[in-house]
């Protein structure tokens, strides 16, 4: 009896070790979960809107529900790149239109879930990554520069500031929060490698992080038509306390873009200084859930 028990126990141990070993091997050979997801997510996206600094998602809503945002400046860009509203409002399966938002402000987490849910019902392919874009992946301290929400969340930044009432004053009490950041150059490289070719528009309004990200995209050779058709950007040099370094980066980047030297391997992406602050408070109702 005792002998049988020993054999059984030893057998169980061998099997357990074997299973653990196989699991580790399986885990090693599988592609990273993120890349795998990305590939599946964007396989059918021939028209992609990347919204960097999505705030509460208003630009993505302008893309799919333009009738709720009349006269918003950005609509002309959507019309030009992705077709008229009647086309865009069809399911993504038909149009190939997808939108990806990046926003780390924890304040909008539930808003994003509601939009994602309502849009899934409409067949609109939209994802919000609850991360800030940067030139590296990890964590960073951001400041809630928003006077308890009175400025609609636009001040969420790596920089402590407040620009209310037309004057700039450094806001001492802005609460810091640690947020995940994602290397956008790497993300874009993965997207470019997995999504089908088509039309790609990127909006960048990221409260001072644009210098890090644009320099990275420039170095990576990603400010090119073969990767992005159009970029709209708002520069924020005034957010920096040490102006000298950022002003040098600012004029270097703008000059390079203006002289069409930002892409060595083909035509440069169309890059515009463009900012649409309309409907900052949004407040438009979401599409009704399907019954
Ligand atoms: C992509 O399109 C195919 C064919 O229409 C469909 O079967 C598949 O589910 C789509 N994938 C996604 C992620 O939408
Ligand atoms: C924000 O609200 C808190 C608590 O209600 C208050 O103590 C604080 O003074 C407010 N801060 C600003 C900048 O309004
Ligand atoms: C990110 O950008 C900052 C500022 O341009 C630079 O100092 C830093 O080295 C960059 N980080 C990486 C990983 O490239
Ligand atoms: C993006 O993809 C296109 C075609 O798939 C390729 O020609 C181009 O080199 C890629 N861009 C980068 C920066 O890798």
From TrEMBL:
<feature type="domain" description="Methyltransferase FkbM">
    <location>
        <begin position="95"/>
        <end position="245"/>
    </location>
</feature>
<dbReference type="InterPro" id="IPR029063">
    <property type="entry name" value="SAM-dependent_MTases_sf"/>
</dbReference>
<dbReference type="InterPro" id="IPR006342">
    <property type="entry name" value="FkbM_mtfrase"/>
</dbReference>
<keyword id="KW-1133">Transmembrane helix</keyword>
<protein>
    <recommendedName>
        <fullName>Methyltransferase FkbM domain-containing protein</fullName>
    </recommendedName>
</protein>
<keyword id="KW-0472">Membrane</keyword>
<dbReference type="Pfam" id="PF05050">
    <property type="entry name" value="Methyltransf_21"/>
</dbReference>
<keyword id="KW-0812">Transmembrane</keyword>
<feature type="transmembrane region" description="Helical">
    <location>
        <begin position="6"/>
        <end position="24"/>
    </location>
</feature>
